[in-house]
From TrEMBL:
Keyword set includes Membrane: yes
Species whose genome carries this gene: Climacteris rufus (rufous treecreeper)
Keywords: Glycoprotein, Membrane, Transmembrane, Transmembrane helix
Membrane-spanning residues: 12-31
Topology of this chain in the membrane: Single-pass membrane protein
Protein name in UniProt: Adipocyte plasma membrane-associated protein
GO cellular component terms, semicolon-separated: endomembrane system; membrane
Entry GO MF terms: arylesterase activity
Length: 385
C-alpha cells in the first residue's frame, strides 16, 4: 500500500506543481522586465585569508551625528571642517559638531526615491585649490560650490549631450592640484541613481570623462566600463583609478607621461563590490565596499552574474526594495598599496556599526566613513585598529 500511496502523492504533488508553475511561467513571460542583462563572467572570489581575513575592526568606529543627516555618501575636509552631500539633496558643513546646510543644487520636495531626480543627489565631493568644493550631483551634473557663501556654479550639465550620449548618473570626481582638470564618472547613460540596483544587475557599459575648466570642454576617456563608480587621481597625477563596481575590479587610465591615453587593470577580482576610492596617508588607496563576495560561502551576485534569465525573472516579479533585502549586509574597507596589493582590511560583518559604507576618507589619523544610506558618519581611530 505504501508504494501506491507514495505514487499517488508524487502524482498529486507534480500535478499541483505544474498547475502553479505553468501560470506563473506564463505571467513571467508576459511581464515586462526593466533590465536586459548580459552574462558577466567573474572569477571565483578571492579567499578571505591573510590580510583579507574577516575581523570586526570597523565595529570600533563611533557613529557621529546620528539621525541628524542621511546618506552622507562622500566626505571632505577643509582644516577640521567637514563637508558632505546627503540623500535629501543638501550639501552640508559640519564645524565644531554643528551641522549647517550651505547649498542645494536641486529643489524640494525631497524624501522618497521618486523625488530624487528633482531634489538632486550630491555624491562625490572634493576640495579644489582655492578651497571651493567640487560636487558631482547624480541628476544635475558637476558643480562648483563656494563653502562660505553657498553660491553654486554649474560646470557640466546632465542636459548637455556628451559625444551623443546623455549623462544619467554622474557619480564621483577627482581634481588636479592646479584645479584645471576634473575627471569624473558617469555610472550609466541609461539608469539613474534611484535605479542603481538595476544598473548593477544589467551591467551596462559606461565611462570615464574629463572636464577642462579652462576650455570648458568635456572629453570621454574610457567607455565600456560596467558601473564605473569612484575615481581617484594618483599622487603623481599620472593616472586615474576607476572602480568598476559590477566587475569587482579597479581599472587604471593614464592621463600623462609615456603611457598617456592607455589603460590597464589595477586590481581585479576584489572580495567585494568597490564603491569610492580615496588616497591613504601611506601613499596607497582606501576602497570602500558595501557588498561582500564571500569565499568560502555563497555569493548571490556571482551566482546571478552568469544567469541573465534568473535576473530577468527576479526583476519581473520583485521590486528593487525587495531584492535589496536579500543582499546580506556586510561592510568592508580595504587599503591598497600604490601598486594595488592589499595592505589591510577592516570588516563589519552584518554592518552592525558601520552599514552601507560608500567611502573611506582619511583625515588626521581618523578614517571617516561615508554611507549612501545610513543616518550618520562613522569615525574610526586608525591608531586603535
Amino acid at each position: 500500500g505504501s508504494t501506491y500511496s507514495s505514487k499517488v502523492f508524487r502524482v498529486t504533488f507534480l500535478t499541483l506543481a505544474v498547475s502553479v508553475a505553468v501560470p506563473l511561467l506564463g505571467v513571467t513571460v508576459l511581464l515586462d522586465c526593466p533590465i536586459d542583462p548580459q552574462p558577466i563572467s567573474l572569477k571565483e572570489p578571492p579567499l578571505l585569508t591573510g590580510v583579507l581575513e574577516p575581523n570586526t575592526k570597523l565595529r570600533k568606529a563611533e557613529r557621529l551625528w546620528e539621525n541628524q543627516l542621511v546618506g552622507p555618501e562622500s566626505i571632505v575636509n577643509i582644516g577640521d571642517v567637514l563637508f558632505t552631500g546627503t540623500a535629501d539633496g543638501k550639501i552640508i558643513k559640519i564645524e565644531d559638531g554643528v551641522i549647517q546646510t550651505i547649498a542645494r543644487i536641486g529643489h524640494g520636495p525631497c524624501g522618497g526615491r521618486a523625488d530624487e531626480p528633482t531634489c538632486g543627489r550630491p555624491l562625490g565631493i572634493r576640495v579644489g585649490p582655492n578651497n571651493t568644493l567640487f560636487v558631482a550631483d547624480a541628476y544635475y551634473g558637476l558643480y562648483e560650490v563656494n563653502p562660505s557663501t553657498g553660491e553654486t556654479k554649474m560646470l557640466v550639465s546632465t542636459k548637455t549631450l556628451i559625444e551623443g550620449q546623455k549623462l544619467s548618473f554622474v557619480n564621483d570626481l577627482t581634481v588636479t592640484q592646479d584645479g584645471r582638470k576634473i575627471y569624473f564618472t558617469d555610472s550609466s547613460s541609461k539608469w539613474q541613481r534611484q535605479d542603481y540596483l538595476l544598473l548593477i544587475m544589467e551591467g551596462t557599459d559606461d565611462g570615464l570623462l574629463e572636464y577642462d575648466r579652462v576650455t570648458e570642454e568635456v572629453k570621454v576617456l574610457m567607455v565600456g566600463l560596467r558601473f564605473p563608480n569612484g575615481v581617484q587621481l594618483s599622487p603623481a597625477e599620472d593616472f586615474v583609478l576607476v572602480p568598476e563596481t559590477t566587475m569587482a575590479r579597479i581599472r587604471r587610465y593614464y592621463v600623462s607621461g609615456l603611457m598617456k591615453g592607455g589603460a590597464d587593470m589595477f586590481v581585479e577580482n576584489m572580495p567585494g563590490l568597490p564603491d569610492n576610492i580615496r588616497l591613504s596617508s601611506s601613499g596607497g588607496y582606501w576602497v570602500a565596499m558595501a557588498v561582500l563576495r564571500p569565499n568560502p560561502g555563497f555569493s548571490l551576485l556571482d551566482f546571478l552574474s552568469e544567469k541573465p534569465w534568473i535576473k530577468r525573472m527576479i526583476f519581473k516579479l520583485l521590486s528593487q526594495e525587495t531584492v535589496t533585502k536579500f543582499v546580506p549586509r556586510y561592510s568592508l574597507v580595504v587599503e591598497l598599496s600604490e601598486t594595488g596589493s592589499y595592505r589591510r582590511s577592516f570588516h563589519d560583518p552584518n554592518g552592525v556599526t558601520a552599514a552601507y559604507v560608500s567611502e573611506a576618507h582619511e583625515h588626521n589619523g581618523y578614517l571617516y566613513l561615508g554611507s549612501f544610506r545610513s543616518p550618520y558618519i562613522c569615525r574610526l581611530n586608525l591608531q586603535h585598529v
